[in-house]
């Protein structure tokens, strides 16, 4: 069997199991390196009261814990559904080499998981977004970056 299909099916199965065991929405993710699963997860938003506990984020945390790293170079992330904007951001920060997904985000939208709204928000200017954003204390906040640049124990990522 095609390796990508094999691991994507594992992610789809996690989505189904997470749903039927009451952990959260029907989403699963698996992270693979060198043909081996190094992290996995299903959506746990409702069971852990954590709106960020999407399958991809849970799997990234699992893989990074197991591998003892904050970067997932050389890994492939398999997601039962196309990642939402939050997960896509988390995936870019974790830097796996590839993403393989099953359902489209429009399929999730049909099931009531509408991340299209967030995509539209990202395209809007800050002042037109649904949640108001107020900018204050620029100089004081920006000073931390100057300190970071000079910080000797800085770990680049
Ligand atoms: Zn997500």
TrEMBL record:
<feature type="domain" description="CMP/dCMP-type deaminase">
    <location>
        <begin position="2"/>
        <end position="116"/>
    </location>
</feature>
<keyword id="KW-0862">Zinc</keyword>
<keyword id="KW-0378">Hydrolase</keyword>
<dbReference type="InterPro" id="IPR016192">
    <property type="entry name" value="APOBEC/CMP_deaminase_Zn-bd"/>
</dbReference>
<dbReference type="InterPro" id="IPR002125">
    <property type="entry name" value="CMP_dCMP_dom"/>
</dbReference>
<dbReference type="Pfam" id="PF00383">
    <property type="entry name" value="dCMP_cyt_deam_1"/>
</dbReference>
<dbReference type="GO" id="GO:0052717">
    <property type="term" value="F:tRNA-specific adenosine-34 deaminase activity"/>
</dbReference>
<keyword id="KW-0479">Metal-binding</keyword>
<dbReference type="InterPro" id="IPR016193">
    <property type="entry name" value="Cytidine_deaminase-like"/>
</dbReference>
<protein>
    <submittedName>
        <fullName>Nucleoside deaminase</fullName>
        <ecNumber>3.5.4.33</ecNumber>
    </submittedName>
</protein>
């Amino acid at each position: 069997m095609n390796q990508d299909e094999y691991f994507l099916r594992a992610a789809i199965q996690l989505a189904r199991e997470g749903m039927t065991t009451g952990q959260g929405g029907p989403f699963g993710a698996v992270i693979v390196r060198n043909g081996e699963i190094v992290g996995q997860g299903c959506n746990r938003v409702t069971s852990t009261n954590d709106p960020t506990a999407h399958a991809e984020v849970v799997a990234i945390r699992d893989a990074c814990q197991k591998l003892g790293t904050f970067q997932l170079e050389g890994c492939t992330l398999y997601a039962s559904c196309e990642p939402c904007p939050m997960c896509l951001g988390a995936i870019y920060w974790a830097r796996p080499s590839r993403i393989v997904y099953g359902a489209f985000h429009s399929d999730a939208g049909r099931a009531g998981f509408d991340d299209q709204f967030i995509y539209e928000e990202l395209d809007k200017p800050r002042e037109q977004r649904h949640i108001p954003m107020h900018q204050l204390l620029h100089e004081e906040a920006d000073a931390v970056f100057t300190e970071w640049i000079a910080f000797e124990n800085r770990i680049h990522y």
